[in-house]
């Protein structure tokens, strides 16, 4: 009969099996979609390593171009003075921290705008050298150290 429901015409033992297969396929597709989405998000949050580092060299998408305003030094990525920057922070503030660490002869790794474990270790080193709380977080006190004109 045209337009009839195949599940209605199938033997009673086949109907549950068809539903199980359909539900399994739908659940598998949903799971695959979720896994791919998580992988894409994780990849976007961790910039790729590589590139050169240097005082005025382009590294990744950030550069270190130092300027002096009164008694403060800026590297051209951010004018932050109190914004907290810490492990897993990303963006211009993190790149500014990396450039300023480089200026203090501390190697944060690539100037990539990702405040990873290596950048955190160098922040702690600066904090220890200047006798401030060693927490690896760049807050108001650590910004002042980083921006200080030597």
Task: Tell me what you see in this structure.
It is a single chain. It contains 5 helices and 4 strands. It has 150 residues and is mainly alpha-helical. A hairpin with a 2-residue loop joins strand 1 and strand 2. The longest helix has 32 residues. The protein is elongated and about 85 Å long. The termini are far apart.
Outline the secondary-structure elements:
Layout: H1 6-9, H2 14-45, E1 58-59, E2 62-63, E3 67-69, E4 72-74, H3 92-103, H4 117-129, H5 140-147
Antiparallel strand pairs: 1-2, 3-4
Tell me about the largest β-sheet: 2 strands, antiparallel
C-alpha-based Rg, rounded: 27 Å
H/E series, N to C?
HHEEEEHHH
Unreliable spans are 46-59
SS elements, strand count = 4
Give the strand order of the largest sheet, numbering strands 1, 2, ... along the chain.
1-2
**N-to-C CA distance:** 90 Å
Q: Report the portion of residues in β strands.
A: 5-15%
| Oligomer classification | single chain
Structural class: mainly alpha
The number of distinct helices, counting runs of at least 4 residues, comes to 5
User: How much helix, percentage-wise, in residues?
Assistant: 40-55%
Per the principal axes of the C-alpha atoms, what is the gross shape?
elongated
Mean pLDDT, all residues: 82
């Amino acid at each position: 009969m045209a337009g009839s429901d195949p599940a209605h015409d199938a033997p009673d033992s086949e109907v549950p099996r068809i539903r199980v297969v359909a539900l399994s396929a739908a659940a598998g597709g949903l799971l695959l979609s979720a896994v791919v989405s998580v992988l894409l998000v994780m990849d976007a949050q961790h910039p790729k390593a590589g590139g050169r580092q240097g005082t005025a060299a382009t590294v990744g998408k950030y550069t270190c171009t130092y300027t002096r305003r009164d008694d403060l030094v800026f590297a051209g990525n951010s004018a932050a003075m109190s914004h907290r920057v810490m492990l897993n922070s990303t963006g211009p503030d993190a790149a500014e921290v990396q450039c300023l660490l480089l200026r203090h002869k501390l190697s944060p790794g690539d100037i990539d705008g990702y405040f990873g474990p290596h950048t955190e270790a160098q922040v702690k080193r600066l904090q220890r050298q200047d006798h401030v709380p060693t927490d690896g977080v760049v807050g108001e006190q650590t910004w002042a150290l980083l921006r200080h004109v030597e």
